[in-house]
Amino acid sequence: MRIALWTLLTLFAACPSLLARDIHVNNISGDDRFLGYSQHASSTKTGPVRTIAKALRVAKKGDRVVLANTGIPYKESITLQGTLNSGFPDAPFRLVGNGATLDGSAPVPAEGWKHYRDNVFRFRPSRMQYQQLFKDDVPVARVVVEKGAYALPKLEPLTWCLYNGHVYFCVEDGQLPRFYNLSYSSLPVGITLYKVRHVVVRDLVVQGFQIDGVNAHDSAFSVELINVTARGNGRSGISIGGASRATLNTCLAGSNGVAQLRTEGWSNTEVQDSDLLAESAPSIVRDGGRVIVDSVEFHGDVLEKDIVPGDMAEE
To answer: Do 212 and 254 reside in the same domain of the chain?
Structure first.
């Protein structure tokens, strides 16, 4: 008996994946009073939790957080940090999206709009340095204001700009902003990774955040993004900084405000079989860090070449 117990303990120590659990999240049928151990609600309260944030509090090292794709976006800003949100070399901590969407946008309050002149209205968002404006959940065409500009640029109908801390939007003749389904970037960052190791995020859409869709802030090692779509975020789709080490595999980034992929510090980023669409901003903006794209090291500061043409926000 003692030998069998010792054998079992040795097996668990050698294979930490045997101890990993699935924590299920469902933003329709879930309840944060549940434990998340089952996909379906039950009288024992083992059913899915409602929020990703609760799942991350429940999860232990090497677990999987599994999202149900309900067709309704998850409206959260989450952080993976420290040992409990880390994994093992052969059993990474996983956030599995199943094609679900993590969305940081919020409707523009109808009373927030003030008439400026002609067909132009403006409102002041709570976060002003980076922004996006959406109509029917698709980014509105933006007019970029040159740094130090002393006057508002000309806006055509259904275009917008960010100027002196306000969002300016030009309506069509005879229309008012409240006649459109308009939203803006409300939450700051979709997924922040900080001081984690062996983490995989896969099959997830991250959109509508004021700064970055995914930000590996610092000391995020052995991070892999697989089939992650990062679109319509105020600064960048994906940002890798500090001393982080990350791989982008079959990812898609586009319609982000400043860069599709942004790197800084002493980071190391490998991009494999991924599409970085430069229709709204450069594909890569590098302010430090090492970037390797399909086995070729990128030595510049800005890569503007379109990898795949088209506007992925329409998809």
So the answer is: yes
